[in-house]
């Protein structure tokens, strides 16, 4: 089973419990600029992505962190102080971040500055993921079946006409696009959606009735989905009911999927743990931050750049080496 190695949006998903995690005092009505915090690099971060010219991470209180070398990080003042859950770049310059109160932010300079495109504290719930296939067309998804789309780079956002998604009325956690051009989306209650050959959204049969938190295309037709209680499922052909459960030997929630090569994936999860999944379907745990504790936060997203793995978690940015010769031998930092 060969896996496609492509540009990754990186958070490929947000945990359900994060819907309630923003117990921070936030202005209920009007957007306010995020405050600059000296320890922002060590605060709760939910997503990190490689823009092609640096790294961008987003998280609590509207924190946006930017680094061009992976070592020195600066906080960029965001036009909202809401929890930001996901970030996606269409190219080195054009990027979008989403979060609570249906906040959608846009940058045209690689993340050096951001403007607010969408904000709805009285209407839509939290947005939990965003994906742009190019600088014009993208989607933002979130709680209570929120599904927004744009074809003009975010100047206007409208509800996507997708009856199958609307009828399901579930929280939507992750969206991505396969090399074939088909979109994939997962959510609570085992929900799996995809676009068909005509571009219409359909709901697929699911092998699991718990929440899926991230989804990743495998080659042209395959799919990997991960979620609650260590559940990971793979199929060699989207739309065919041949899902196979991958034995993970864990009950920890799995939060994100990051391709490393055509044959390997990194999977992050609760307890600040991480696994490697190889092409034959073997899932091996390679990192536990606090093995003696059963409740020590989470790793929420990962990105691989220049031989390093950059992890976004409840304690900010973590960095670990990625030996090219044997991913499974990654040692604890």
Automatic annotation (TrEMBL):
Cite the Photosynthesis system II assembly factor Ycf48/Hcf136-like domain residue spans from the record.
Answer: 69-315
Q: Which domain of life is it from?
A: Bacteria
Q: Where is the signal peptide?
A: 1-25
Q: Which InterPro entries does this one have?
A: PSII_CF48-like_dom (IPR028203), WD40/YVTN_repeat-like_dom_sf (IPR015943)
Instruction: Report the record's Gene Ontology biological process terms.
Output: photosynthesis
Query: Which SUPFAM superfamilies has this protein been placed in?
Result: Oligoxyloglucan reducing end-specific cellobiohydrolase
Q: Which GO terms describe its cellular component?
A: photosystem II
Q: Which UniProt keywords apply?
A: Photosynthesis, Photosystem II, Signal
* Record-linked Gene3D superfamilies: YVTN repeat-like/Quinoprotein amine dehydrogenase (2.130.10.10)
PANTHER family tied to this protein:
PHOTOSYSTEM II STABILITY/ASSEMBLY FACTOR HCF136, CHLOROPLASTIC, PHOTOSYSTEM II STABILITY_ASSEMBLY FACTOR HCF136, CHLOROPLASTIC
Q: What is this protein called?
A: BNR/Asp-box repeat-containing protein
């Amino acid at each position: 089973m060969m896996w496609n190695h492509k540009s990754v949006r990186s958070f490929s998903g947000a945990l359900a419990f994060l819907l309630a995690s923003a117990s921070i005092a936030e202005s209920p009505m009007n957007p306010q600029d995020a405050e600059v915090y000296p320890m922002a690099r060590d605060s709760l971060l939910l997503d990190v992505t490689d823009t092609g010219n640096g790294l961008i991470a987003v998280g609590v209180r509207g924190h946006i962190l930017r680094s061009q070398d992976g070592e020195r990080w600066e906080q960029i003042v965001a036009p909202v102080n809401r929890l930001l859950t996901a970030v996606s770049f269409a190219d080195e310059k054009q990027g979008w971040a989403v979060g609570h109160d249906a906040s959608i932010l846009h940058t045209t300079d690689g993340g050096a500055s951001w403007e607010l495109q969408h904000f709805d504290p009285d209407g839509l719930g939290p947005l939990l993921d965003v994906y742009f296939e190019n600088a014009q067309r993208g989607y933002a998804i979130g709680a209570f079946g929120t599904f927004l789309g744009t074809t003009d780079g975010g100047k206007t956002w409208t509800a996507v006409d997708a009856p199958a998604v609307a009828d399901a009325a579930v929280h939507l956690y992750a969206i991505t696009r396969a090399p074939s051009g088909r979109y994939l989306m997962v959510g609570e209650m085992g929900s799996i959606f995809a676009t068909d050959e005509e571009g219409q959204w359909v709901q697929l049969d699911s092998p699991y009735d718990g929440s899926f938190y991230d989804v990743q295309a495998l080659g042209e037709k395959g799919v990997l989905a991960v979620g609650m209680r260590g559940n990971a499922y793979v199929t060699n052909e989207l739309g065919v009911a041949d899902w196979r459960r991958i034995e993970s030997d864990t009950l920890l929630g799995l939060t994100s999927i990051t391709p490393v090569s055509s044959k390997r994936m990194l999977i992050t999860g609760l307890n600040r743990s991480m696994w490697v999944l190889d092409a034959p379907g073997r899932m091996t745990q390679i990192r536990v931050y606090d093995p003696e504790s059963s409740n020590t936060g989470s790793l929420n997203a990962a990105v691989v750049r220049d031989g390093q793995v950059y992890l976004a978690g409840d304690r900010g940015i973590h960095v670990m080496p990625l030996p090219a010769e044997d991913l499974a031998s990654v040692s604890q930092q």
